[in-house]
Amino acid sequence: MSVLEQGQIQIHTENIFPIIKKAVYSGHEVFLRELVSNGTDAISKRRMAAMAGDCSEADEGLINITVDREAKTVKISDNGIGMTADEVKKYINQVAFSSAEDFLEKYKQESDAIIGHFGLGFYSSFMVAKEVELITRSARPDSAAVRWVCDGSPAFKLESHDRSEPGTDVILHLMEDELEYLEPARLRTLITQYCDFMPIDVQLEGESVNKRNPAWRRNPREMSDQDYIDLYRYLYPFQGDPLLWVHLNTDYPYTLQGILFFPQSVGRADWEKGDIRLYCNQVYVSDSIKEIVPRYLLPLRGVIDSPDIPLNVSRSALQTDRKVRSIGNFVAKKVADRLKSLKKDQPEEYAKAWDSLAPFVKIGAMEDDKFAEQVSDLILFTTTALWSEDEAEPIKAGDKNYTTLLSYQSRLSDTQSKRILYCTDEVAQAGALSLWRSQGAEVIFAETVIDSQFLPWLEATNDQFKFQRVDAELDESLRDEKPEISDQDGETQSESIRSLIKEALNNDKVTIQVQALKGGEEAPPAMILLPEQMRRMNDMGALMDQRLPGLPDHHVLLINRRHPLVEGLLRLSAGGVLLGSAQSSPSKQLASELALHLYDMARLGVGGLEPSELAGFQTRSAKLMSELVSKGT
What we know:
36% helix, Heat Shock Protein 90, six-stranded mixed β-sheet, Rossmann fold, Ribosomal Protein S5, domain 2, alpha+beta, nine-stranded mixed β-sheet
């Protein structure tokens, strides 16, 4: 074996390898991705050169990884185009045509633009190897095999070799603290993670490991629903089946393919990092693509594969530029188009999926004006309106009915305003909800956390929408204004109730209103009336986990004199004397305690009871019920 040449790699400093080892790549394990990618490229180049008649044809492309435990080496072999001695000097020794000064200067100033200008993938091997051998033979006619050896310093040796077949072997002599890569199970995990969908067969000790042929590169018309479901199950095992999916495919102004899945639930979704996997020419790059996909779509799952996404030298970070923003807009539009087609063609299926889709649509609309336009007709709310086969809406899905806001407004009578009634808590607001429903009013439900932001946003961006919570100020349509009859002392029932409640509360800051509300027993006995904006402030405080300091000192307590509880309370107090006197009757005292209980229940319904007051409320409630039980027995 004759030595062809000895010398120095063409750099003028020894700083290049420490940068590669410590600064360029964040994780050592990516060495396998880079070397397998190089092998894949070499096989593709041989195919192209063979078609042009420039080199010999190969059998089916193959990359084989073998381990020698005794020698502590890992070998990555390919049957690609290989290299001549001159090509080794050109592509290996000179670090892809660059002197160290040029490389270091560009790395410092334009680190995101290095890939494509410097052939550094091969040098990632020095992160795990104390010495690297490169044995290669070009597939071009009359080529001789060569062996290149380097220990990570600028010194190298290039000599002839007896390799008979075209291709390349990269032999890594592992460092002592990198011997984990001698374990086949570790290598198999890395192949599955980084090389699973590469177009070339990747074998470990002669056994094929990767799946190859990714579904996202197939024609959507050739894909069945089961094909999509199988891919989802493979990528995200034990996560159930996807809700629906979006197949991406474009070749202008950039090349991009992929499949995005809507998961069944986003309860624990990552809205900062995401679950979408990024590939570059079928090579896994990252599972964090927040620079590409808009934040509101990050909890989607699936794959985006594009050779046109600008990556930094280690492929671990993306460069945010106009192209990346354009890709994000493309993905958002395709998602909106998919939802539009589903709502149009399968409205019931869309409604069934809405609870899982809503976070994406609502957050996306608030964060992206263009997306908001695309999904403006896709936003649904559950409604108290009944479904009719003669109407397109409300949409019936299971035991729920869904409506758009424009459809809601179309059902309002001419005399009604554009006001949209909504309920945020069907249990806490049950009394007010029943009151409105008893009068035939339609109410939508906005019970998710995001709705406390979404409804004000809708009002701010759409003049036709005005929202009012069911337990906000009551309008005249809910009041029964029949004239009252005065008693023998000239006092009406409302005045008597007002006096009773006022005396029991003994709080001049609480304004007491007594009204006869429609709805019978379904109407609440007492309500705290707060302006809509005050209620929204409370909702926003709850959203930010910053509870506002209870009710304002001055507020309105509305008493429904038609409610049986209030009528009974008035009868209890009828035979007594002034509450504050020593001669106060037991019935009058019980009426006073009931009046305080009514007030506490009204406060509880609007979150007006402080945590420190809840224990006292429970104690008083138990005592009051005990008194009522004793009187009944």
